[in-house]
Amino acid sequence: MGGSLNMVGYGLAAIGPGIGVGLVFAAYINGTARQPEMQSRLQPIAFLGFALTEALAIIGIALAFVLKAKNG
């Protein structure tokens, strides 16, 4: 039962990075729509924000698997 609860916990924890990625790209699209000439400066910042936000999800799933292996 404990292992399956780890995965349920990860599923709930993945909502945060999912919302974060959506907010990062929404801000990028909004900024590019307002000032198209800034697209070349905003794009690397958007990808950096995406990578950092997605790293949280990757750390979360790794932790869920480590806890599952530890608990049996």
Instruction: Say which CATH homologous superfamily is assigned.
Output: F1F0 ATP synthase subunit C
Q: What is the 3D shape?
A: elongated
Radius of gyration: 17 Å
- The top-level CATH class is Mainly Alpha
Uncertain segments of ≥5 residues (pLDDT<50)?
A: none
Quick one: biggest sheet? none
Please report the total strand number as a whole number: 0
Q: In total, how many domains does the architecture comprise?
A: 1
Element string (H = helix, E = strand): HHH
Helix and strand content put the structural class at mainly alpha
* Rounded average pLDDT: 87
Strand content bin: under 5%
Secondary structure tally, helices: 3
Which architecture per CATH?
Answer: Up-down Bundle
Write a concise synopsis of the structure shown.
The protein has one domain: F1F0 ATP synthase subunit C (F1FO ATP Synthase).
